[in-house]
Every structure is written in structure tokens, then in C-alpha cells.
Write a structure and sequence with these properties.
Elements: H1 2-15, H2 19-39, H3 45-52, H4 56-84, H5 86-105, H6 110-138, H7 142-173, H8 178-181, H9 183-197, H10 211-231, H11 240-262, H12 276-306, H13 311-317, H14 319-359, H15 368-396, H16 402-432, H17 446-452, H18 456-466, H19 468-503, H20 512-520, H21 538-541, H22 544-549
Helix pairs in contact: 2-6, 2-7, 2-9, 4-5, 4-6, 4-10, 4-16, 5-6, 5-9, 6-7, 6-16, 7-13, 7-14, 7-15, 10-11, 10-16, 12-15, 12-16, 12-19, 14-15, 14-19, 16-19, 17-18, 18-19
């Protein structure tokens, strides 16, 4: 029976050799929409504010509802997909994402738009871990999987980076609701195609699904991400209202981890974090996203407020970063095989730190060549880091836990993004405000100076209200203070990236599958029959049929060759035994 199953598995794998690349295209298109929706609204905020007139807190929730809900529910839906089927969860996420997009595009109040953005977050949480876990199943061979992950991470970078460009174009030519409405026809196409092409897969399915644990994980992550975002707000400092959700969320996550350790069938396999490569890869994803999102936010402010570019021009200036990320993703599989995860992630961090230091040469005037060079190095370095980290993390996780591992990776992605905005935004504010301390000597009232110290955008508004020499002095001083704060923030970011390079030394030096194949030598073309006179003793002969059923051919007389544990033929490399690593 086992031999028959093995043969059927080989036939299915051979027949689906070309189909899995079509599956990859479908997964990447769905990921592109989710990643694009995370940033496409940023340039539409002024139009939304003018139309719906939300309060300051309401506007904050319009922007943050999507990433907050998405981050909170990733583990819930990632592990649910392991139980009821990843394809089923993914298709449900497609449908919900399309419905929520219609609601967001037609919202006539801020409350409706916030609710629609929250529903988009639920749909995104259903889609993101499912795409990565299905990718883990469809590409059992680690070398092919590395290429697929390279394409997957490049698409995520393209979606996030092109969001402002597409959003700026749509808002400029149509209305703000169009940034959501573009999702509907795309989802209408992807849903039936995915239903036809995507394979269904599940995890081990042992024991009951831990519903209470899933809710605890959602509540804990929501509190942590919300607290981080509030700490990164203007003037938040050590505000107890910002610290409260952070501390409460951290406490709930501690209880969640203890609960998982006690359960016979845990929701998330906490033992994965005992593997240095897995833990290090997750930490590297957090650090890389911290740098990417924080630097992109500050770069957008610099391009629009200091260089006075339009939203569309700002998005176009960021395109070199996108193209560099695509190049790094396309060549990532080859690079990973040649240099290994440790060097790829480590040198990716070093290259990114170098690009950040290069960008400290930015000043009051536009230097397009410098900016382009810095963004190209930044995109290539960070994409190389994310590629190596995601590949290592996913390959360390057992196939039956792919949904949970993917959810952990996506949660670390979201946590890194939130921490980047909070940490680098706080550094920026702390370095910017002291530069406005002497404004009273230039005829600027104290109240106006205090308001201008909150942000460069508010300083421009106050300067416009003051007018005359005082307004011009405020505008010039605020611009210089912002550029000085930008340089400090870039230096802090470079230091964090170099810490990531040091942490990468815990990753494997080489791809394990390549090393094992080199040690094992080329596999034999066919099983070699063993003559009767050379067969082993009866006790040893009892194991022979079992070895052959597992797909390991006999190698002549007993004792001449023993199969390596965990090393299987390519057709069976995706089994739950973590083969192919």
C-alpha cells in the first residue's frame, strides 16, 4: 500500500511540474493586491479628509484599521487553514476582500470606511499566510522553493512600493474611492481561477483546534501593534494610554505561549523557536521591515515637504527601489545557492546600511542621482535580506505546520512595520524638535513655535498663517531641522541594520539540501537486485521491504550503504519529515 501511494505521489508531482508555476502566478497576484492595499490609501488621505470630514482620531483609524486587524488575525487564520484547508481559507479571503473593497469605495461616512478597512484586514489575514503555506506545499524541492519565494517576496515589495504611485494616479484622475474599487474586477478574475487551479492542503490535524488560544493570540498581537503605533505618534512619548495596550498585549502573549507549551496539540508549535535558524530568521524579518517601512515613511515626507514633489512624483521617485527589489528577488535563488543563507542575509543588511549612510548626504536641494543610487542599493539589500530570512524560516518549519509558520512570518512582518514607524518616527521627532528652540529670537510667537515643533507639515501651516519675515524664518528653520533630524534617523537605522548583520551569523552557512546532495552523491538510476547468496541475515532482511517502500533503493549487499535520515528522492521531498532542507 505504501509503495502504491509513493508511486501515485511521484506521478502527481511529475504531472504538476509546470502547473505549480501557474499556481505561483495566482498566489503572487493575490499577494500583490493585499500588499498594494496596505499603502495605496496613503496619498488619498487628503481627499478622504475633505470628503468625509473625519475627526483626527477617526482619520487615524481609517489608516490603521487595515494593518491592525490584519496583523492580529494572521495566526488565527494561518492555523485554521492547517486544520480545515488552506485553499478554502484563501478562497474565502478573496470573496471577503472583494466585498469589503466595494463597501470602502462607496463609504459615505468615516465609520463605514473604518468598518470596511477592518473587513479588508480580515480578508488580508486570510490571504497572506495561505499563499505562503500553499507555496510551501506546491514547491517541495528547496531549490525550486527558493526561486518561488524570491518571486513571492519581490511581488510583496512591488505591491507596497507601487501603492502610492497607483493611488496618486487614481486620486488625481478619479476620486478617492477608486483606490479600493480596482480590487473588485481583479478579485472577480482571481477567485474562479484560484478555485480551479490551487490544490487543497492541510496540516497534521491532530487534536482539536485551540479556539481560545487563537483568540488570545489575536488579542495579544492587536494590543502590541496598537501600543507600538501609539508610541510612534506625535508627542506620545511615554503616554500611559499608549503603554497600556502594549503591556496588556504583551501579557496576553506570555499567557498564550504558556498555554501552547502545556497543550498536547498546540495551536502554534513553540518548539520551532528552539531552532536558532528559525528564531534568527524571524528576528531578521522584523529588523528588515523596521528599516524599510520607517525609511519609506520618512523618505516620502522628505520628497513631498522638503523637495516639494507631488504624490505622483514621489511615487515615481521610489520606483528604483521597487525595480531593485524585483532584481534581488529574481536572482535570489541563485545567490542563496552560491553564498548560503548566512552570507545572503548578513551582506544584505550590510548593503542596506551602506545605502542608508549614503542617503545622509541628502540636503535642502534635490539630488536625483544620489537618491536613485541610494534607493537602488536600499531595495536590493533589503529584498536580499527578506528573501534569505523567509526561505530559511519556511524551510525550518515542518510541512504540516506551514500555515502556522507562515502566520508567524507575516506577523513578524507586520510587527516590524509597526515598530519601524514607532521607533524611527520617535527618533525623528526627538531630533527635529530641538532645532526649533530659538524661533522666539526671530519674532515667532512661543505658541506658534510649539505647534511647529510637532511636525514639518504643521510647521508649514503655521508659517503660512504667520506670513512675513517671521513665517519665512519659521519655514526655513523647520526645513533645516527636519533635514538634520533625517540624518540622525538614518544613522540610527544604519546601526540597527548592522545589528541585524551580526544576528545573521546564527543562520546556516549553506543550504542544507545542497550540502546533503553533495555528500550523498548522485542517486542510482534504478534499484539494484541483491543476489540470494549475498542477502543479509533474516533479522536484517525484515527491514528491507520497508526501506524500499520509503523510496530508498537497495545498494548491493547489506552494510555497504545506509540511507541518510531525512534525505528522500526529489518527488517526495515535501513530506512532513522536513526533507528537502
Amino acid at each position: 500500500m505504501t509503495g502504491t501511494s509513493t508511486a501515485a505521489t511521484r506521478l502527481r508531482g511529475a504531472a504538476g511540474h509546470a502547473d505549480r508555476w501557474v499556481v505561483l502566478v495566482v498566489l503572487c497576484l493575490s499577494l500583490l493586491l493585499v500588499a498594494l492595499d496596505a499603502t495605496v490609501l496613503h496619498v488619498a488621505v487628503p481627499a478622504v479628509t475633505e470628503d468625509l470630514r473625519p475627526s483626527a482620531e477617526g482619520l487615524l483609524w481609517i489608516v490603521d484599521a487595515y494593518p491592525l486587524v490584519c496583523a492580529a488575525l494572521l495566526i488565527l487564520f494561518g492555523t485554521l487553514g492547517d486544520r480545515i484547508g488552506r485553499r478554502r481559507v484563501l478562497l474565502s479571503g478573496y470573496a471577503l476582500f472583494g466585498i469589503a473593497s466595494v463597501l470602502a469605495a462607496t463609504a459615505d461616512t468615516a465609520a463605514v470606511l473604518i468598518g470596511a478597512r477592518a473587513l479588508l484586514g480580515v480578508g488580508g489575514a486570510m490571504i497572506m499566510p495561505a499563499t505562503l503555506s500553499i507555496l510551501r506545499q506546491v514547491f517541495p524541492d528547496r531549490r525550486e522553493r527558493a526561486l518561488a519565494i524570491g518571486v513571492w517576496t519581490a511581488v510583496a515589495a512591488v505591491g507596497a512600493a507601487t501603492g502610492p504611485v497607483i493611488g496618486g494616479f487614481l486620486v488625481q484622475h478619479y476620486w478617492w474611492g477608486s483606490v479600493f474599487l480596482i480590487n473588485v474586477p481583479l478579485m472577480a478574475v482571481i477567485l474562479p481561477v484560484a478555485r480551479l487551479l490551487l490544490p487543497e492542503s492541510r496540516g497534521g490535524g491532530d487534536g482539536p483546534w485551540d479556539v481560545s488560544g487563537a483568540l488570545m493570540a489575536a488579542a495579544g498581537i492587536l494590543g502590541v501593534v496598537l501600543g507600538i503605533k501609539r508610541l510612534g505618534g506625535e508627542g506620545a512619548g511615554m503616554d500611559p494610554f499608549a503603554l497600556l495596550p502594549l503591556l496588556a498585549g504583551a501579557a496576553v502573549l506570555v499567557l498564550f505561549v504558556r498555554r501552547q507549551k502545556r497543550r498536547a496539540y498546540p495551536l502554534v508549535d513553540i518548539t520551532m523557536f528552539s531552532r536558532p535558524a528559525f528564531t534568527t530568521a524571524v528576528g531578521c524579518i522584523v529588523l528588515a521591515m523596521l528599516a524599510l517601512v520607517g525609511l519609506e515613511l520618512i523618505a516620502v515626507q522628505y520628497l513631498q515637504l522638503v523637495l516639494d514633489l507631488t504624490p505622483l512624483e514621489t511615487g515615481l521617485r521610489l520606483l528604483p527601489l521597487t525595480f531593485a527589489a524585483m532584481a534581488a528577488g529574481a536572482t535570489g535563488s541563485y545567490t542563496l545557492r552560491r553564498v548560503g543563507p548566512r552570507r545572503m542575509v548578513g551582506w544584505g543588511f550590510v548593503l542596506t546600511a551602506g545605502s542608508v549612510l549614503l542617503l545622509t548626504l541628502m540636503g535642502q536641494h534635490d539630488r536625483p542621482v544620489l537618491l536613485t543610487a541610494g534607493f537602488v542599493l536600499l531595495g536590493f539589500g533589503l529584498q536580499s535580506t527578506l528573501f534569505g530570512a523567509y526561505e530559511s524560516m519556511l524551510s525550518e518549519a515542518p510541512a504540516e505546520r506551514a500555515g502556522g509558520a507562515a502566520a508567524i512570518g507575516e506577523t513578524s512582518y507586520q510587527l516590524g512595520a509597526g515598530m519601524g514607524i514607532a521607533l524611527l518616527g520617535s527618533v525623528m521627532n526627538a531630533a527635529y524638535a530641538p532645532g526649533l528652540a530659538g524661533l522666539h529670537e526671530q519674532g515667532v510667537p512661543a505658541a506658534a513655535g510649539a505647534a511647529a515643533s510637532r511636525s514639518l507639515g504643521e510647521a508649514y501651516q503655521v508659517a503660512g498663517e504667520l506670513g512675513g519675515p517671521a513665517g519665512e524664518a519659521l519655514r526655513s528653520t523647520a526645513r533645516h531641522a527636519f533635514v538634520g533630524g533625517l540624518h540622525v534617523t538614518l544613522l540610527v537605522s544604519a546601526g540597527l541594520l548592522l545589528l541585524g548583520a551580526l544576528a545573521a551569523v546564527r543562520l546556516p552557512r549553506l543550504m542544507e539540501c545542497a550540502q546533503r546532495e553533495h555528500d550523498a552523491g548522485p542517486p542510482p538510476a534504478a534499484p539494484v537486485p541483491v543476489p540470494a547468496q549475498h542477502r543479509p541475515a533474516p533479522v536484517q532482511n525484515l527491514a528491507a521491504p520497508v526501506v524500499q517502500e520509503q523510496g530508498v533503493p537497495a545498494q548491493g549487499p547489506a552494510g555497504r550503504h545506509r540511507p541518510r535520515p531525512g534525505l528522500r528522492e526529489p518527488a517526495e521531498a515535501g513530506g512532513p519529515g522536513r526533507a528537502g532542507q
